[in-house]
Amino acid sequence: MAELTLPASIAGVEPVRSVRTPAHLDYQFTAGEATSRFLRGIAERRILGERCPVCEKVYVPPRGACPTDGVPTAEQVELPHEGTITSFCVVNVAFYGQAMEIPYVSALILLDRSDLPIMHLIQEVAADEVRVGMRVEAVWVPDDELAPTLESIRWFRPTGEADVAVDMPGEGEGTGLGSWPELSPGSGA
Amino acid sequence: MRDVAIIAFAQSEHRRRVDDRNEVEMLMPVVGEVLASAGMTMDDVGFTCSGSTDYLAGVAFSFVMTLDGVGPWPPIQESHVEMDGAWALYEAWVKLQLGDVDTALVYCYAKSSPGDLPMVMTRQLDPYSVAPLWPDAVSLAALQTRAAIDAGRVTVEAMAEVAARSRRDAMGNPKAQLAWDRPAADLLAEPETVAPLRRHDCPPISDGVAAVVLAAADAARGRASRPAWIRGIDHRVEPMALGLRDLTDSPSTRLAAERAGLHDGPVEVAEVHAPFTSQELILRAALGLDGDTVVNPSGGALAANPMMTAGLVRIGEVARRISDGEHRRGVAHATSGPCLQQNLVCVLEGDT
Amino acid sequence: MGRHLMGRARVAVVGVGQTQHQATRGDVSMAGLVREAAGRALDDAGMTWADIDAVVIGKAPDFFEGVMMPELYLADALGAVGKPLFRVHTAGSVGGSTALVATQLVQAGLHERVLTVAFEKQSESEAMWALSLPIPFQPPMHAGAGGYFAPHIRSYVRRAKAPDHIGILVALKDRRNALRNPYAHLHEPDITFESVQESLMLWDPIRYAETCPSSDGACAMVLGSEAVGDAAAAAGGAPAWVHGTAMRSEPTMSADRDPVLPLGQRECALDVYRQAGVTDPRRQIDCMEIYVPFSWFEPMWLENLGFAAPGEGWRLVEDGVTAMDGDLPVNMSGGVLSSNPIGASGMLRFAEAALQVRGRAGDHQVEGAGLALGHAYGGGSQFFAMWLVGAEKP
Question: Is residue C6 predicted with pLDDT exceeding 60?
């Protein structure tokens, strides 16, 4: 880096190391048609997934498209409020905007009759008792607090039913779809 | 170079505010339409490339959910540029040169309506010395226009003619957002909004999406009766700082046009990406367009200006006119950055 | 060894440069940061800015610095005025995909010498803030990025029946490798198995010491045509030759995909190996730099990339195969676990692979490295970019 020669008038002036330039921008987000349908259901204590007309998989929350087939999901499917934990982590640190008591469990929960797990909190059970395969159910806020937000479901808690086997892509096929020996080089490109 | 053509183009209607659908829901029908028009499904697409920017969406990684909307399964060859879709098309064109894929899907989208667009665009400027002043895009274009008027390269009368012609032509474009028929003389009676710009000199703020399908050589001939061949494509950039360049000219456009071989044949039609009327005049001079060229028959960015998308729309509009047999040879131009900082030129031809 | 594919001209890496990576590079602006890396790459290539035909730049989300499309403001700092300047953004894989877009410009015969740069200056804004912009009506993120990946890691551990200490071994190895790399952000000479084990279990099964840092940094490479590579070789510049390149993407939210061992990554690797004529990656590839932001991703990716049988990736770690003195060293530079300027992290992997086969990796050189893999991934394990580079011309 070339050395700069400063004019005598500012020689010895303390260099500017940084400037603070706060920026504030407001955005009005559009939920979109599918998310609106879903959130209106949540405000009525209903969980509405949507089915892909091609592969018939049920997505919740629906995002308007099947990520496998790239077509709109328009058929609504009302889902039970119970599901199965497919995996989880135990969180031991406070994160931005979270007022949870530590430790808490954040889990992937596959709602019955749906095909992709949602991520939500597990409560009303000790963190070290949470298991993959555990059956859980939604705990809702009181009726007068119901609103079109996923936070209308406060968390999930164990139902007390027996654990079930987890059936997800990758399970039971070696260690997964993307594991190696099923294909030899040259066949997958 | 390998022959590569645009074989399909689709765009949404461009509107000031689309508030019932999100980006994914706006994009899906257009991608569906462009693939259907090429007689293809995602399984037939060799490479996918998109253009968009997080600052419009107000969300980091905003392109990720949009990709889910096109159904990228089984896994696809795919890339994304934080640029106008015209540059996504450039990347796809390069990819097709390599010969291992024969088709490409290019899409881009913008919802400008969630934020305050002029303020959002200030975040593009030098973060240490310019962005803190929050100079909006209209004011910067006004500075450029003043310089061009003072240099004798642009007149307010010529600018009004551009405005009147663009909005009149837009009446024949069902996708356009701003279309009307008023004589230029009437426009000049209107007050200046950001002098020397009047309201008619400025583009609308638009929500919109666009997509094209590219195909190489035989794949193009097999899928389209009259492919719009990309005969040359090039892009060049200038410094951002307005004091470091001649705002009354567009040397990067001129250079890109030379590299793209624009002057190797007649230019029957041109779609130039000029959000402000004075910029069309500057660009016409840089591209060396004379009175024989039909300029912006779609109405151009003055009729609809979806950010990150209006550049690809220019390419699509020229390609469509070539595929329709309306013209044989034309040029499309895309711009990015304040006051025409970065420019892309694409020369398109139909078979004779 | 490899084949010259139709339509693809040969490409050589003739210059590599990177910055000092640290939490805050308060001594340089964004322009200063990218010029530090690019200047070193040009020096390494024996070139000046004027020699460059085109510039391809990548970085992760613009909210990380608070500048929209910052390459436009950086155009003159990057020496790009009057040239093509191209900006790539493919999430965490961007450093790798940026290098690949630059490679394609040379492969297609469009340019002779392309400068590619990737950077992140997270200290200019707040990365956690940028990732946590509260979007109404989207499911709340309860636990940050680690909270997204930790359940997938738990799935791997369960499916592979891997013992708990594997993650610790990877963190220990990478941080010790970083001690050999003067550019690395984290230099922890006192690290021990116990210190990693006793670090806070942030997102069980991920401990604090098994996560990547947040860094300011940049990486740059000069890519040249075959003639440029030959000239570099004649001048003793030891170019690295590109033997294979590939990118793949898959959806975030598809019910059909396996985020633990993604199909897209497997197919991406297969494509690269096919181009390079590699049929047995475990034996033919000498070392690799792969994107491991949480330690458990090393055994996962060893399986997914074809270096271990299903469920066996962790055994390579446990047996020391992936250590500097093992027969398949992984993340010789210290990896993402030791330096993580997000947008540049992928390119640093690609650059380290090139340095290895050029014999220019300094104290972290693998003796006789002839063929090396550079790898990046991003998003929810859904965007993949890889290249194989070799000391010999393909």
Answer: no
Q: What is the dihedral of CA C357, C360, C361, C363, to 10 degrees?
A: 130
Tell whether C39 is covered by a domain.
Answer: yes
CA C105, distance to chain mean position in Å, is 20
Query: What is the reported pLDDT for A178?
Result: 54
Residue of C nearest to B255 (CA): C82
Q: State whether A178 and C206 contact (CB < 8 Å).
A: no
Token pair listed for C370: 């002839």
Provide the residue type at B127 as one letter: P
One-letter-per-residue 3-state SS of C228-274: HHHHHHHCCCCCEEEEEEEEEECCCCCCCCCCCCCHHHHHHHHHHHH
How far is it, in rounded angstroms, from Cα C252 to Cα B198? 46
* Substitution target from C64, C90, C253 for chain B, most B beta carbons within 10 A: C90
User: Is the CB of residue C10 less than 8 Å from the CB of residue C225?
Assistant: yes
Which residue range forms the structural domain that includes residue A83?
33-158
Does B19 have pLDDT greater than 60?
yes
Residue A90 is assigned to a structural domain of this protein: yes
* Terminal alpha carbon distance of chain B: 19
Taking alpha carbons only, the member of B278, B228, B265, B200 closest to residue B5 is B228
Q: Does A118 reside within a domain?
A: yes
For residue B251, the chain C residues in CB contact (below 8 A) are 82
Q: Indicate which CATH number applies to the domain containing C316.
A: 3.40.47.10
End-to-end CA distance of chain C: 6
Instruction: Count the domains in chain A.
Output: 1
The mean per-residue pLDDT over the stretch B235-243 comes to 97
pLDDT above 70 as % of chain B: 100
pLDDT at A174: 47
Residue A180, in any domain of the structure:
no
pLDDT-derived band at A180 (thresholds 50, 70, 90) equals: very low
Q: How high is the pLDDT of residue A187?
A: 36
Query: In Å, what is the CA distance from C142 to each residue of A48, A86, B116, C136?
Result: 22, 17, 30, 14
State the Cα angle at C270 between C267 and C272, rounded to 5°: 110
Assess contact for B222 and B318: CB atoms under 8 A: no
Residue C268 lies in a domain: yes
Count of alpha carbons within 13 angstroms of residue C150, beta-carbon side: 26
B237, two tokens: 């950039």
What pLDDT digit, counting tens, does each position of C190-235 carry?
999 999 999 999 999 999 999 999 999 999 999 999 999 999 999 9
CA atoms of C100 and C107, how far apart (whole Å): 10
Which chains are adjacent to chain B, needing at least 3 Cβ pairs under 8 Å? A, C
pLDDT tens across C90-123, in order? 999 999 999 999 999 999 999 999 999 999 998 8
Q: Which chain C residue's Cα is nearest to B341?
A: C72
Among partner residues B18, B68, B115, which is closest to A67 by beta-carbon distance? B68
| B151 has a pLDDT exceeding 80 | yes
**Is C160 in Cβ contact with A179 (below 8 Å)?**
no
Report pLDDT for A176: 46
Q: Does some domain include residue A58?
A: yes
Question: Do residue A28 and residue B113 have CB atoms under 8 angstroms apart?
Answer: yes
Domain presence at residue C356: yes
Q: Which CATH architecture has domain B117-203+231-349?
A: 3-Layer(aba) Sandwich (3.40)
- Any idea what the Cα angle at residue C372 is, between residues C368 and C376, rounded to 5°? 150
Rounded Cα distance, C316 and C307, in Å? 9
The top-level CATH class assigned to B4-115+205-228 is: alpha beta
**Helix (H) or strand (E) run with residue B311 in it:** helix B310-323
Counted domains in chain C:
1
- ipTM exceeding 0.85, yes/no: yes
Q: Which amino acid is residue A68, in one-letter code?
A: T
Q: Contacts of residue B336 in chain C, CB cutoff 8 Å? A: 69, 72
